[in-house]
Amino acid sequence: PLLSPLTISSSRNPLQPPDTSSEEPFTTYFDSKIPIPEDETHSCFSFRKLWAFTGPGFLMSIAYLDPGNIESDLQSGAVAGFKLLWVLMLATIIGLLLQRLAARLGVVTGLLLAEVCNRQYQKVPRIILWLMVELAIIGSDMQEVIGSAIAINLLSVGKVPLWGGVLITIADTFVFLFLDKYGLRKLEAFFGFLITIMALTFGYEYITVKPNQEKLLKGLFIPYCQNCGTAQLEQAVGIVGAVIMPHNMYLHSALVKSRQVNRANKREVREANKYFFIESCIALFVSFIINIFVVTVFAEAFFEKTNADVSSVCVNTSSPHSSLFPSNNKTLEVDIYKGGVVLGCYFGPAALYIWAIGILAAGQSSTMTGTYSGQFVMEGFLNLRWSRFARVLLTRSIAITPTLFVAIFQDVEHLTGMNDFLNVLMSLQLPFALIPVLTFTSLPSVMNDFANGLFWKVAGGVLILLICSVNMYFVVDYVRALNHVALYVGAAVLSVIYLSFVAYLKSFLRASLTLPWRSLRPFPLGLALGPWLKRLLPPLCTLLSGSCRGPGGLPSASSSPD
């Protein structure tokens, strides 16, 4: 059987609740904690306390506004019109519920999600998990930095090349990251300023285009997509993958540690959980409104437009980018670069430059939070205690180096294929955040009285299953589009290894939802590979290529692709 009887491991103690008799030293990236004021006059709700807790949720919400999300929004509008707005709303609500779990873990335990993983998982799985999360951060960072570089290219009328924009983004990210030396609240205010810029710029586009409000409301509240085909379905899956980011769970569990909460006092912990959830609701509502601005602008102006339609308008307005759109009757395909160009063609140069400013704010803010995510993940998994500059330099180098290579060798006008690949990469990493966060927040020995109840266990399990299934569909669809048998076989083998590791993590999750924690022991990762290899490789090969089955249904080592 895949799961052997689980007993306590003598080599690795299960995670114990932190000692609440004394406050642990503050070891996150930030150097100070924000005090929470007492408000005796308002026992149920206090705006003073809400203001004191405001900050981490808005930093977390920036992942819902990064250039990858903006591109998914505009493509959703151009491909499906207003019909997928309900998917965006549903994905945002699911994201909120998952962020709640991550925040509660940080508040109750005083540990980062990465630290909890470091304490519980065995060495090899722990390193694999860290590498998977790092891949997600690198993929997200590439989209964010390149998004900023595209914005700089648009603002400079093409005079600053893509690689130049990447270097500028790297440099100013280093500068902005040290703003917290002047106080954490000032840093949070700077992020709030960038979110405000996004709201104003994309709001300007919304007012300029004037989307149909009836279609907007219908798309939001009627979960139906009339006359939708494969393209619209793939776009819906892409929305879910773009909104729910794996490294954001690790980030949020760390950011909540920036407030002074006495974890020995249940009332303070309960109060912190309440206010952090309220703040997250407000922050994600703001991000949702900004995303709606982008979707509806492109739904109103460019839904069912062809390349020839756009090309003629751009030529008539003497746009220097009119050559981007061939004069054919193919449906218009846009990304954040072409999106700015078509806005400029239809609504004037101001629309283009204001769009670029919004993209720059989105890219710059998400690049900074991505850097924080990288540092929290590395410190938690590897227990690093390096100097501030060394941590920033290492995490930036890991994420920026592949981005710079792409910028040097790739044309700014042909990045859509790379973005598709990065979206697939990040979709694959989702289980490595969602499964651990549900596992550990369901354990009474970790969360004490704040462990998930039956409703949250069931709902969390269903949500994770739904999200992972949706994203696996996205991944399989992407692999099938590669149209090469050798790539199919390679993808099948990697899929078996990937699913085996996911099964290893799920063994913890299943046990945490059904068994007492003190009866748990990690089973060796290698034991998972054999049975899953035998069970999963044949159907995966069949699904992807239909041509790699040998005698008895097992993969044939001697079979060669036709």
Automatic annotation (TrEMBL):
HAMAP family: NRAMP. It is a multi-pass membrane protein. GO terms for cellular component: late endosome membrane; lysosomal membrane; plasma membrane. The chain crosses the membrane at residues 77-98, 128-154, 160-178, 190-207, 236-255, 276-299, 341-362, 389-409, 421-442, 454-474, 486-505. It comes from Bubo bubo. The lineage of its organism: Eukaryota, Metazoa, Chordata, Craniata, Vertebrata. Its main location: membrane. Keywords: Ion transport, Iron, Iron transport, Lysosome, Membrane, Transmembrane, Transmembrane helix, Transport. Belongs to the NRAMP family. It is found in: Late endosome membrane; Lysosome membrane. Pfam families: Nramp. This is Solute carrier family 11 member 2. One of its GO terms (molecular function) is cadmium ion binding. InterPro entries: NRAMP_fam (IPR001046).
